[in-house]
Amino acid sequence: MLRGAAAATVTATAAGGLAASLPHPTAHAAPADRARPAADGARPYRWRSVAMGGTGFVPGILFHPTVRGLLYARTDIGGAYRWDDRAARWTALTDHIGWDDWNLLGVEAIAVDPARPDRLYLAVGTYAQPWASNGAVLRSDDRGTGWQRADLPVKLGANEDGRGTGERLLVDPRDGDTLWLGTRHDGLWRSTDAGAGWERDTSFPAEPSAGGQGVTVLAAAGRTVYAGWGDGGGTEPALYRTTASGGWEPVPGQPIGPATAVPQRVAHAHGALYVTYANAPGPGGQTDGAVHRLDVATGTWRDVTPHRPGGDDTFGYAGLAVSPNRPGTVVVSTNNRWGRVDTLYRSTDGGATWTSLRERAVLDVSETPYLTWGEEEPKFGWWIQALAMDPFDDRHVLYGTGATIYGTHDLTHWAPRIRGLEEASVRKLVSPPTGRAHLLSALGDIGGFHHDTLTASPARGFYRNPVFGTATGLDLAARRPSYVVRAGWGDRGNGAFSRDGGRTWTPFASQPPGAKDAPGPIAVTADAGALIWSLVHWDGTPHPGWRSDDDGAHWTEIPTFPAGATPLADPIDPRVVYAYDTARGTVAVSHDAGRTFVTAADGLPAGDREYQLAATPGRTGDLWLSAKDGGLLRSTDGGRVFVRDEGIAASHTLGFGKAAPGSHHPAVYHVARLAGSGRTAVYRSDDGGRTWTRINDDAHQWGWIGQTITGDPRRYGRVYLGTNGRGVQYGDPVR
């Protein structure tokens, strides 16, 4: 069981120059002063999520069948949640997962034990690729407050195709200590000791495919277990069941064909087994599908598809929920229906007739205004694979989308049920020193937000004009902080500027050739006089850098800018711009506001695009280089000489905030691993990096957190941390 721990003060000693650890230094420097202990003891931090309102794909929602108000949700990259019915919000259950185990923050499946309400299981593992770690099963006896972990010898794929099928984990109805786990490439697995140990069930008759889906769903009907199989290609059985003798068999009479190639969900009530199917695992790529019903007692199958896909109306069927109290009440969802928009179909007569719920739906998104997607009316949703019906109230229905969870209690009025669940992948954070907003963000998939309060989703929604999918750059002018620029994959252009601190935006009047396919990082000089835009294709291919001195109306190529480098403006001198070329391990500097660049230092860490260069606010030429396992290096002479801090074993991202009382240096916030420590954690330094205090704890780790961090320049101690799947976390010292 993992518990929180108070912050701890540790000392990192800086010593030695480049010559000690890096090849071909530009110059040598005297060793830095040895670090001294911190002046006072550490204080614990309180951590909370910045409210956005989901913003990510929710592929699974599960009500407990015997406890009113108890339900769980899983996300593809952001962990699992438990619903707090009294507070009407979600509680994160997997924030304890740390840096080394980041692959376990994606949840492949959830299982509950009907007879033991406090027992909860999660199958975790984000990627099944060769470079990813193996999956694991987490088990809890207190509804996810504490966990035990069983590592698996196989990989899971919570963020891969097929993540919306399921659940792939099931407690056996005949024995509460027996569990079944369906994997994508390694067949069916079984545990007979409540999830502590696992072995492959070699009696399962279907053979997995290396590129397939394997077991897509597990469900119980009475004392029988059913398993959906996604590798049959529409020509082989796709549904299996346990036999009285303990083996497995294909379910007799089942439909076989392209529309039923991949079972999505299976549910049973009142002697009827329902199955939703599609011709692809989803969430994308589905163009055909069906819904079938099996009378378990007679073995009779019936096609109860609400509406047949075809012509220009292509989609699959995915979500499925049945009422245990009202025979014949069932709800299914379409998925990947882009032409006529996805919907839910509801039947009260076992699928003989259906009613679409979308047409009469009234959507209230006032709590998460971004769900209007920049238009007058909100959308019913897309990628609807998660669907759940309250076992105590068949008019209480929830469904997940690519961005949120909608819920209703009357089948007509729907509103997001997403409070507390934050799933954004964060690319860049900026905390302005003045203005209404304390936080500006650049996000994957959803552009970013202007937050003037941290506890509510912004009333203006996400950035508009243009609307971005994934952002690639965000910066403000240090001496004119109301001026902000951003770049990304947009609907009408790939860059924009703001004169009111990021509240409203104006698209660039033009953009460089290639920006549409390669909108990389962007910087603005301290006085807002020039923009420097580095173009980088989505696959990492670098392009030339470009400069504009008229808010993006005209652009001039910079021949001396290192292609693919990340530009960084000096916070004081508007003539100075830096560029860190991670491919060659060099820092180039411009002294004419980005018109020309010359190499200032070489021999620096190279080969990783995630290396980051940061500049100390209020100082010119004071640079910090986070080079991952290459450590932390610092230059105080404008990038000519860098000195490595030997007390830092790995440095991932670094930012600055308001100085501590009595300190003359901004507070430094750092995601790092200190020398002699096996843990990557979040640290703060109040003395310019001489000593570091850990400010997160074992209960607050959030997997991979190496992308972006910044302090608040107006509030000492406050820090904003970008995660890859848990949105923006912000922390304050406990007073």
Describe the structure.
By secondary structure, this protein is mainly beta. The protein has 3 domains: 1-52 and 424-457 and 634-735, Methylamine Dehydrogenase, Chain H (7 Propeller); 53-416, YVTN repeat-like/Quinoprotein amine dehydrogenase (Methylamine Dehydrogenase, Chain H); 463-603, 7 Propeller (Methylamine Dehydrogenase, Chain H), CATH 2.130.10.10. The chain is 0% helix and 38% strand. The protein has no helices and 57 strands. The strands form 14 sheets. A 5-stranded antiparallel sheet has the order 1-54-53-52-51, with no helix packed on it. Strand 56 (719-722) and strand 57 (728-733) form a beta hairpin. It is elongated. It starts with 8 loop residues before the first strand and ends with a strand.
Q: How is this fold's topology laid out?
A:
Elements: E1 9-11, E2 45-49, E3 60-63, E4 71-74, E5 80-84, E6 89-92, E7 107-113, E8 116-124, E9 136-140, E10 148-151, E11 169-171, E12 179-182, E13 188-191, E14 199-200, E15 215-221, E16 224-229, E17 239-242, E18 248-250, E19 262-269, E20 272-278, E21 289-295, E22 300-303, E23 316-322, E24 330-335, E25 344-347, E26 355-356, E27 362-363, E28 387-390, E29 393-400, E30 405-408, E31 413-416, E32 426-430, E33 439-443, E34 450-451, E35 468-477, E36 480-490, E37 495-498, E38 506-507, E39 522-524, E40 531-536, E41 542-548, E42 556-558, E43 566-569, E44 577-581, E45 586-590, E46 598-601, E47 612-615, E48 623-626, E49 632-635, E50 643-645, E51 648-657, E52 667-674, E53 681-685, E54 691-694, E55 709-711, E56 719-722, E57 728-733
Parallel strand pairs: 27-31
Antiparallel strand pairs: 1-54, 2-57, 3-4, 4-5, 5-6, 7-8, 8-9, 9-10, 11-12, 12-13, 13-14, 15-16, 16-17, 17-18, 19-20, 20-21, 21-22, 23-24, 24-25, 25-26, 28-29, 29-30, 30-31, 32-33, 33-34, 35-36, 36-37, 37-38, 39-40, 40-41, 41-42, 43-44, 44-45, 45-46, 47-48, 48-49, 49-50, 51-52, 52-53, 53-54, ...
